[in-house]
Design brief:
globular, single chain, 3-stranded antiparallel beta sheet, alpha+beta, 23% helix, 13 helices, 496 residues
């Protein structure tokens, strides 16, 4: 494993790290990433982690004897698959003037057949057609009610293989490969309706939506995570911690910006780029100290707070989790700036979503609603629109267990659910359903420290090195590696 992933970085050293050498090796990586000093193995682990992060994706598929018009009477079960994610930092630059590191982190996903068994990527699931729902939301905002009948006459020219709001699709297609629509061959015999369908598809192509991709033949491809495969999630600038170790891993900017432009208030706290990336944390964590986490996937910052002490393989840690009011405006006034002009509730009214739900359209460019899995902490009026969900904190909360002296993550699980609002449109027969907050899928990213790394951490770091030396090099080398980068055995749990 080590030879395969870090053969150019040398063997693991247990000697105290020379911080001056770290600066030189960081610069060397920038100049020639394939010629890294063999003694600087820890830096290699931060740059190119060994451990494979396990990603679980659970679909919600309806099981019912009713027509899909009675969606709320369907009971939803899940179909889960697992993927192995590897990450690699590239284009690393040390900026001596402000003591920061700039880099890009690329992600790669591979289906984990063993962990997913007996499920496979080729399995078919019945899920809401998210792209079709985007179409209905987009057109309903453009056309007044008395012209929405045009949507009813057009949508099947855009999605000719679909008869209802739901469709049957392979797991691998909806996640990474994609499923196609807006096939130009559908418009060879131009009629008024086909001409309108062509106009709709042309509008789709102009949308800046990461889950949509235009193919060479002009058709459109929808996949939830294809846009991440082999791509980086932006240019990060973080504190290097060489001059002030407390700033190690602190995000300064993303893609060159100190503020996002997605949420209400140009310089609001909702738009402010800050916090950490859930990999590197500050040392000497105090129990009453909350830690901000910048989550690129949902374009926002959230805070984790201390819950209790908890041991992982005999290493004492602090268990911290996202606040219950993370997605609440009524309980957390600081979230008011996440309520934008694009928000429309379950009944089409332009108002903020209730507790437990948040609008992802400013981030995704599509009408997707985020929540904790199984609507954990969600408003009863919304959670009651579907049956079969079983929210519980143990399985559905987001948490991290951090070693408090170094800030090293010992275990952690990030969990998020993607949902769609279904509501009837006047004159569009296929949409005559009950107003429903419908779960599509939820994602869990998780990893735990293994026995091998735990032994090294205890014997070489906690018991031998003094804290001052630990803070110089363990965090930059192992802090990132523990969470996403070292060893091959880990426990990954996903339960309803």
């Amino acid at each position: 494993m080590q030879a395969e992933h870090c053969d150019k970085c040398g063997k693991l050293t247990t000697e105290p790290h020379n911080w001056g050498r770290l600066y030189r090796e960081t610069t060397e990586i920038q100049k020639n990433p394939n010629n890294v000093n063999r003694e600087d193995y820890l830096l290699c682990l931060w740059r190119r982690p060994l451990q494979l992060l396990s990603i679980g994706k659970a679909f919600f598929t309806p099981k019912c004897k009713f027509e899909f018009r009675n969606i709320s009477q369907c009971r939803y079960c899940r179909h889960k698959c697992y993927y192995i994610q590897t990450r690699q930092k590239r284009n690393i630059t040390y900026n001596e003037a402000n003591d920061t590191l700039t880099y890009e982190e690329y992600m790669y996903f591979e289906f984990d057949a063993e962990k997913s068994y007996p499920n496979s990527e080729n399995d078919t699931v019945v899920v809401v057609n998210a792209a079709l729902n985007v179409l209905f939301n987009m057109l309903s905002s453009i056309f007044p009610e008395n012209l929405q009948y045009l949507i009813d006459k057009t949508w099947q020219n855009v999605f000719p293989d679909t008869e209802t709001l739901f469709h049957t699709v392979q797991v691998g297609d909806i996640l990474f490969n994609g499923y196609r629509f807006c096939d130009p061959q559908q418009y060879q015999n131009i009629s008024a309706i086909e001409d309108f369908a062509w106009l709709v598809c042309s509008t789709f192509r102009l949308l800046n939506v990461p889950v949509l991709e235009t193919e060479d033949d002009g058709s459109l491809n929808f996949a939830f995570f294809k846009w991440k495969q082999g791509k980086h999630s932006g240019v990060f600038n973080i504190g290097a911690g060489i001059k002030d170790v407390s700033k190690l891993g602190l995000i300064h900017s993303w893609n060159g910006y100190f503020y996002l432009d997605m949420w209400k208030g140009q310089l609001s706290s909702c738009n402010k780029v800050r916090g950490r990336d859930s990999v590197l944390y500050q040392p000497f964590l105090k129990e009453d100290e909350e830690v901000d986490i910048f989550a690129v996937d949902i374009c926002r910052v959230s805070s984790i707070y201390y819950v209790r002490d908890e041991e992982v393989l005999n290493i004492k840690g602090q268990r911290r989790k996202l606040r219950e009011d993370t997605f609440s405006i009524s309980q957390n006034s600081g979230n008011e700036c996440f309520c934008t002009d694009t928000v429309r509730d379950l009944y089409g009214e332009q108002k903020c979503l209730p507790d437990g739900f948040f609008d992802l359209q400013p981030c995704f460019g599509a009408p997707i609603v985020g929540s904790f899995p199984h609507f954990l902490y969600g408003d009863d009026n919304y959670t009651s629109t579907v049956r079969g969900l079983n929210p519980n904190e143990e399985s559905h909360e987001t948490y991290a267990i951090l070693e408090p002296i170094t800030g090293t993550p010992l275990a952690g699980y990030k969990r998020i659910q993607f949902n769609a609002i279904l509501k009837p449109l006047q004159g569009v027969n296929v949409t005559q359903v009950r107003n429903t907050m419908l779960p599509i899928l939820w994602v869990e990213e998780g990893v735990e420290i293994n026995d091998e790394l735990a032994d090294i951490f205890k014997s070489k770091f906690l018991n031998v090195l003094q804290a001052a030396e630990i803070l110089k090099w363990v965090l930059i080398g192992v802090g990132g590696a523990v969470f996403i980068g070292f060893g091959s055995n880990f426990t990954h749990k996903m339960e309803e």
